[in-house]
Amino acid sequence: MGLSDLPLASGDKHASCFERLGWTRDQKRRGRGSHILLTKTGVRATLSIPDHREVKRTIIAKLITLAGITQDDYIEHFNK
Questions:
Q1: Which pLDDT tens digit goes with each residue over 34-47?
Q2: Which of 17, 22, 24, 53 could form a disulfide with 78 if both were Cys (CB 3.0 to 4.6 A apart)?
Q3: Which of 22, 57, 53, 58 lies closest to 38, judged by CA?
């Protein structure tokens, strides 16, 4: 599984995929910023996804690593 297998999509679509994996949007910290923040109970990391029309695959790969999941799991949930 390589970077080219990760989907090119908007920040919102990627955030929705992480939500299907158990992450929640951090509404209280969301203001006028240009990033979508996601948190998960029991996980120290906060995922910060750029709210762009197309997010680079390298950024998504780093977020997948931070989330502690595999690229295969991510792609499976992205396509649901």
A1: 899 999 999 999 99
A2: 17
A3: 22
